[in-house]
Write a structure and sequence with these properties.
The complex is a heterodimer of chains A (110) and B (121). Chain A is mostly beta strands and 110 residues long. Chain A is 0% helix and 44% strand. In chain B, strands 2, 4, 5, 6, 9, 10 and 11 form a seven-stranded mixed β-sheet that branches. A four-stranded antiparallel β-sheet of chain B has the order 1-3-8-7, with no helix packed on it. The chains are: A mainly beta (110), B mainly beta (121). The interface between A and B is medium-sized, with 27 and 25 residues.
């Protein structure tokens, strides 16, 4: 199964809102509510930011929000801050009873 | 406090079998809804899900790697073990274990720090 499709890079200025996309198919994103998003700073382990499309774990800033439409999931970061600069990965459950990740998006805060 | 820590050899030779151990604390893998996955990340590349084991001993594997992978658990030691056979240089990566703590089946709530494995002769 092919990886989910994410833009390789996105940039924004402090205070702006940006949206990261993650496109799959009806066999993964489109078929289930099990989409999650992870933030990874260089040299660090990934951190869960959003689970089950739009649930924000305790301790994650409310500047992060998730949504889904059809086969595409989105992560929106509002009030962009320097500390948000990182790689972001989406993940989804699949009809093959497996998990799949996207190729990752490098977010640069200008 | 839930923690997970990966351990295993830093270097393996091609064709060898890799055995990685995830030692965890703060939860029991006998508790309903607990699930532990292995995920890897080659240097500079994306994450790749490998396998998962559930509290009830259900096991799930990456479609592309399932012939090479075996996942198991030792609940008395609070450990999950992943073996990968026939290692190749393309398997060079940081290997993570991660916990899904109840609720739905899918996702990774808490991650270990990862362990780097290099395959070379």
């Amino acid at each position: 199964q092919s990886a989910l499709t994410q833009p390789a890079s996105v940039s924004g200025s402090p205070g702006q809102s940006i949206t990261l996309s993650c496109t799959g198919s009806s066999s993964d994103i489109g078929g289930y509510k099990y989409v999650s998003w992870y933030q990874q700073h260089p040299g660090k382990a990934p951190k869960l930011m959003i689970s089950e499309v739009s649930n924000r774990p305790s301790g994650v800033s409310n500047r992060f929000s998730g949504s889904k439409s059809g086969n595409t999931a989105s992560l929106t970061i509002s009030g962009l801050q320097a500390e948000d600069e990182a790689d972001y990965y989406c993940s989804s459950y699949t009809s093959s009873n497996t998990q799949i990740f996207g190729g990752g998006t490098k977010l640069t805060v200008l | 406090q839930v923690t997970l820590k990966e351990s295993g050899p830093a270097l393996v030779k091609p064709t060898q079998t890799l055995t990685l151990t995830c030692t965890f604390s703060g939860f029991s893998l006998t508790t309903t809804g607990m699930r532990v996955s292995w995920i890897r990340q080659p240097p500079g590349k994306a994450l790749e899900w490998l396998a998962r084991i559930d509290w009830d001993d259900d096991k799930f594997y990456s479609t592309s790697l399932k012939t090479r992978l075996t996942i198991s658990k030792d609940t008395s030691k609070n450990q999950v073990v992943l073996t990968m056979t026939n290692m190749d240089p393309v398997d060079t990566a940081t290997y993570y274990c991660a916990l899904k703590a109840g609720g739905s089946c899918c996702g990774f709530d808490i991650w270990g720090q990862g362990t780097m494995v290099t395959v070379f002769s």
